[in-house]
């Protein structure tokens, strides 16, 4: 048996004894000095074996002893120099891993006290003096000689969770260095230092394990601190790996060694933080090929399951896949999967538009990376999925989805058709389409941009397109300026000639418009003179409104003519002119015309467009009729009510929502103040006696398919329009006798269609519910329609939580809020008897609404 | 507030047909009165006395086919007229005569008006559309000998000539021809060599009319589209576009620069006459009187600037006579309100 271990142990025990019992400063400092010899670094150090013995076995225990003896009067026995040299140095110079653990353990276990303050200040110094890198280096070093896994596990936990522990302990008195936003960048620089040492030792031919670093990185990332750590780490690694292949290998290894459960967080972090695809490729190497988990994250999760990332991330990711021949097969695989998602009709129906946009972007970027031979070998497949996807996208009722489909299809077809014309759609360009189109070209350019030194900073998606568009945009305004200046140089001018008034210089009207309505009918039905026809169209509305008596004589004939009128020659705003004329006829002679129009809506041989026109006309007429106006003053509807412009599919629902929003706002306001809304103008509501004529024929036949018209089948666009129109009619039927009956049947209508797959239809239904809630007196609603009300409410709750369409969810929440307001109002009326479970339901509802608001904010 | 545009000074009615061409003759001595020749679509040429504002003489020499160019030579005694019966007639009007003394048969059936240039005392050059569709022929008058035939090269394909303007930089030098073609281009021809000096594609549609200011070497052209183009000729004999003006309504039937090079008048298909400042093409006035397309505009060459007139002939059978921007000094012309009281 070796006597030495005993000797060291004896010395340590003795020192601890002295420390705990003695009250003599000199004695204490001597004891500390003795032990210090075992640490080394001083002139009279102990033999190597003893030192190793001390650090391996006794160091932690001794440190604990030191901490446990700490008290204000005890520490005063030492001078401040001695404190620093003898007390602090054990923690700051001894083996860092043990010192760190002891410090953290004691912090965790101690209550607020002098001792805690002292230990924390030591820990602060520990971090400041860069002991963290020593700690990690020690672990890496040990690992090469197989260290203790549990010890490492504890250490890892403590290193990563240090900010949490200290925050919990110190609460408001936490020191800045322990804040996560300071600690993790510090940790990152320490990691870089350790990596530096590892690379040195590798160059020196020594083996070194990097896996502890990977674990630290992985754990930090999975704790949600990717931002802080990678913001420092990625730029440094980017610089270091630029020229040095050892660093590159180390970096790859660093990521590869991250345990699988943390891989996702690390890869996501890198993908987001890397300023360009080439950097990402340098940092990650062929990780996706080697690591299944990383492959899943990159090819599936980031592309198909999540959609919150900005375009630059997509460009990084797909560019990374495209940069290496090993990874290119993945790129093609990814494209196929993306196209499969893009082409599936159920995805079109059930994915939020934002995700569809994300997938479209990914497809466009993939396409831009593909090379000719790759496209060649996959042409047939691409074509098939393009055709399928295009079909179900063009079927959609949402213009944005349609447009997305068009752009993607256009770009696929332009890539796969080498000769002959490619697909070309007509749509209006907006920011979104321009961004998408720019993705087809910018991808290769992106790679060069990132070589610039400051490229790391502008990783926002808009940065690159802006930079590209600016220089090209500038010359254009400049060029016309040059000839302007040139002409100014001519000194003599025409200034002595004073121009006459030229305001009369207007577009020439070629034809005199007819003055009588009967003439108009003649022109519209028979005339081949296009100029006359055009002039007639332009005056028709005002003519109808001026001559109401004459119009009544021919109203049916006129309605028929107008409904069947086709655009024989191009007139600006023809559709609008025709619609306004029809609205005017409807208003002058409502009953027969509305009867005619509603019956025509469900009859054979009309185009979808005509049917939708009927709906628009009815909605606009209802609006105008319901508006109070002084008798005799017949202003044209167009100037009076800009709110309902049911011209195009997209706008109508938008405007609708706005109306409902405004309405809700005014409602809420009114309830809060307990005042009634003051109408600006008074007059009889002409719509009240007519509401039924508008409403019931429309809602009657929707479930009876005709040969050419099947609302519940393919014609869901018209169904959506119908739902919106019914909502509008219901809304204008406020305060009318028929409102309650209308509301009841409307709720039934909503109930039958509530699971419709088309989001436009659902939006219409939700608008309809809003109208019902707004237009029907709350007593009627709660007394006569309790069942419908409850059913609708449960459906709304369902929609508000689960619907894939964001607009639907929002509308549902609005409806729920409205319902809640209604319930509140009824509680104020004591004569109303309501069920006992109301209160609880309502509380739950309020909580939900608050939650949703919080999540929105 | 700018002044409202003026009304016509007077209107000449009685042609009972569309008026296609107008030509003033005001150059006579004091007892003579200014004359306006008008050619109309019923083949008649009316000679209007602008003092009495009545028709002096009616000339019928084109067999009822419309007359679309008239111009007086030898003072008011001889008149050239071009009609749709493919004849260019020379009339003797001296001492009350009205007979056709000579005529040239044109083989062209287009609408292109001739252009006349006096090269020496008693000698004129006349450019007229030639036998082939894209050909322009230049004759010497009164001998009627052909000076040259200007035919673009086979691959140029400018279409038919639509309007012609002969000019020479200064008296006695070699004359040039500017021709506007069916494809919207204007071509500068050198008569001595019969070569194209420059070609400028300044319109999308046929050039309906052009006029040229040989002092400033810049010209203006109107076409059936809604753009009026001013182009200039540089020292290297290259035509280039200087300025374009967008009109409210399409179609210009005729353009005329006043002899003093101050203003420019256009005859619009939109029934309106437009006046522009010639230097910068500044819009000055819109004269709205006619109820149908205006076919032609013409400025009088009256020796006294204040008596200079503008005449416009229209499809509505009327000739409107305007007195506009004919004060010599700018101050006199200023509307009264804008002058400071002193």
Automatic annotation (TrEMBL), chain A:
InterPro entries: ARM-type_fold, TEL2_C_sf, TEL2_Regulation, TELO2_ARM, Telomere_length_regulation_dom. It is found in: Cytoplasm; Membrane; Nucleus. The keyword Cell inner membrane does not apply. GO terms for biological process: 'de novo' cotranslational protein folding; protein stabilization. The keyword Cell wall biogenesis/degradation does not apply. GO terms for molecular function: Hsp90 protein binding; molecular adaptor activity; protein kinase binding; protein-containing complex binding; telomeric DNA binding. It comes from the Eukaryota. Transmembrane segments: none annotated. Its main location: cytoplasm. Residues 485-499 have a biased composition (Acidic residues). Gene3D superfamilies: Telomere length regulation protein 2, C-terminal domain (1.25.40.720). Residues 325-419 form the TELO2 ARM repeat domain. Keywords: Cytoplasm, Membrane, Nucleus. Residues 451-499, 629-650 are annotated as: Disordered. One of its GO terms (cellular component) is cytosol. Residues 514-622 form the Telomere length regulation protein conserved domain. Belongs to the TEL2 family. This is Telomere length regulation protein TEL2 homolog. It comes from Chrysemys picta bellii (Western painted turtle). The gene is TELO2.
Automatic annotation (TrEMBL), chain B:
Keywords: Repeat, WD repeat. InterPro entries: WD40/YVTN_repeat-like_dom_sf (IPR015943), WD40_repeat_dom_sf (IPR036322), WD40_rpt (IPR001680). The keyword Zinc-finger does not apply. Pfam families: WD40. GO terms for cellular component: cytoplasm; nucleus. GO terms for biological process: DNA damage checkpoint signaling; social behavior. This is G protein subunit beta 1 like. It comes from Chrysemys picta bellii (Western painted turtle).
